[in-house]
Each structure stands twice: as structure tokens, then as C-alpha cells.
Amino acid sequence: MQTPYVRNSIVNAIATIEFYTPQHNLLPASILAQLATTFTQLSNDENCKVIILKSAGEKTFCAGASFDELMAIETTEQGLQFFSGFANVINAMRKCPKFIIGSVQGKAIGGGVGLAAACDYTLATNQASVKLSELAVGIGPFVVGPAVERKIGTAAAYELAIDAANFRTAEWAKQKGLFVEVFEKIVDLDENVEQLAKHLSTQSPMAMAEIKAAFWQGTEHWDELLMQRAAISGKLVLSTFTKEFIKNFKAK
Description:
- Helix 3 (76-95) packs parallel to helix 4 and helix 6 (145-152) packs across helix 7 (154-162).
- The protein has helices at 29-43, 67-72, 76-95, 111-118, 134-137, 145-152, 154-162, 170-176, 186-200, 205-215, 222-236, 240-251, and strands at residues 5-11, 14-20, 50-55, 60-62, 99-104, 107-109, 121-125, 130-131, 181-183.
- Helices cover 52% and strands 17% of the residues.
- It contains twelve helices and nine strands.
């Protein structure tokens, strides 16, 4: 597989969104836009009762932002536009009235941690270590930060943000509340995700929507907040530090 994609299928009221890019499931602007659009469409699709979010491959769930696109940013307006893609995805997931089950089969980095945190119920394998690498790049986890902090608390989110060079294990993520359960094998992850989705597909859509709305209460200002955070990242990505870091990283 070399062509990036976002695929969406609905079977027996269960929607499965799968995304893929050849470089460790990085998130270029095109994939972010497709993800946001897909979540918005499924919000209004009566044939869908519950959503599974997953990525292709085995080793990496999502490695975050595309370095190629970060390097191409030349103005604060372009920076805002790129990082607003992450804001749009998280807000689309937040406002979607359907429960979103995250299936995290491998490492989650930066924006990948944000996706896992924005899911309502996330299961993972023991290979799903997590890292917020943004500070090491010269920016920060500004856009995904609210979703991560909401899920694991301020202290744990701050720990990830500060120690940007090191991974935390999947077990650590489970203890902090990012993951509900961790499995040894991907096949076990898939089986448990499917079982949960099947069960939820038999439940009341109205009740599930009300439960989700109640637990996301207090985030109504995120439309504005995440765009403000995107502007911060869009400014910092223009720094000499960030440009040099990405240049050296790509040269390895």
C-alpha cells in the first residue's frame, strides 16, 4: 500500500473508519480533512449507531503530523490552516452523537495521542506506547492538549508534554485512563472492539447520544479554543529551531 486513504464502511449499524499513510500513518492535511468530514457525515447517518476508528498496519497507530507539510509552511496563515485540521477532527469527534471506539494497535505519537484521547472508549495492544513529541520539534501539543488533558488529567498530560523525547508504555496509558484495556495480540484487540461495537449497536441511539453529550459537557468552547491553539502552533512551526529539527530528522 502506498496511496493514503480514509475508508468508511457501515455493516449492521457499525461504522468503521480506517486511515492510512505509507509513513507510519502520518496525518497530512488531506487525511485530516477526510477524517473530519467522515465523522460529520456519520453524525447524521441513521444507518450508523456506533463508530470504530482504526488505522492500517501493525506497528504504528499514528505518528502525528506530516513533517513534509510542516516544512512547507511559510506563513502563520498557512500554519494556522494546517493545524486547524487537527482542531477540526477533534471537534468533529467531540460533537458526533455516536460513541467512537478507538482501536490502537501500535504506537501513538503527537496527533495520534490526540485521536486516541478524543475517542469515547479506546482499546489498545501492549505495543501501543504513547508520546507527545511536539516540544522536541519546537512546537507543543496545543491543539490535541485539551483532549489529552480531559482524558488523563493535567498532571499526566503535562508529563507527556514535558518529556517529549520518551515513550510511555501502553500500561502507563491504561493506568492514566487513555486506554480502557490493553491486549497482547492485535487479534484479541480486534475481537474485543468488535464485541463492544456489536453490543452498543443494540442500544438506544438517543440514550447513547445523551450520555456522550453529558460526558463532553464543558467543552462547548473548543471550536474557538482549538483554533486559538492552532494559531500558536502555526506561529511556532516557523521558528528556526523547528525548521532545523525537521531538516536534521529527515536527513537521518
